[in-house]
Amino acid sequence: MSNFPVVFPDTGVARQVLADSPELMVVSFRFETGAQGAMHHHPHVQSTYCESGRFTFFLGDESFEVKPGDSFVIPSGAKHGCECHEAGRLIDCFTPRRDDFL
Q1: CA dist., res. 20 & res. 16, Å (int)
Q2: Tell me, what's the pLDDT at 42?
Q3: What are phi and psi of 101, to 5 degrees?
Q4: How far is CA 52 from CA 3, 17, 28, 87, 97, in A?
Q5: Given a cut of 60, is residue 35 above it in pLDDT?
Q6: What percent of the chain has pLDDT over 70?
Q7: SS3 at position 100
Q8: Do the bridges between strand 24-31 and strand 36-40 make them parallel or antiparallel, or are there none, so unpaired?
Q9: Under a CB-based contact definition with an 8 Å cutoff, are residues 59 and 70 in contact?
Q10: Interval 69-84: pLDDT, tens
Q11: Interacting residues of 48 by C-beta distance below 8 A, sequence separation 6+
């Protein structure tokens, strides 16, 4: 069980750190239908696993659909974001840890 608080970085988005160490961080993101993950970039390598819901992800100049069971990696520095079409949960891992989430 995580001791980290649930925070709301964007409308319809709830984020909670599940586990962390300096080398790795696991984070849950819950999205309501219609919510967006704003386009952004960071120096961390990110892997994303879709536990539930349906999303369109934008990665650089490309977009792709994501459904339960899908996973992918976002390279360091790559601009990315998403739109949620069906409420769901994403599990993201970051290396190294996202200190800005602590």
Answers
A1: 11
A2: 97
A3: -90, -10
A4: 23, 18, 12, 8, 24
A5: yes
A6: 98
A7: helix
A8: unpaired
A9: no
A10: 999 999 999 999 999 9
A11: 57, 66, 71, 72, 73, 74, 90, 91, 92
The answer to whether 63 and 57 are in contact (CB under 8 A) is yes
- Cα–chain-centroid distance for residue 24? 14
> Is the previous residue joined to 96 through a cis bond, with omega within 30 degrees of 0?
yes
Write out the two tokens for 28: 């849950």
For residue 80, give both structure tokens: 């990315």
Tracing tokens 């961390």 back to the chain, one arrives at 44
Name the residue with tokens 């995580």. Answer: 2
The pLDDT, as a whole number, for residue 50 is 98
> What average pLDDT score do residues 55-70 get?
97
Q: Confirm if 74 and 90 have CB atoms less than 8 A apart.
A: no
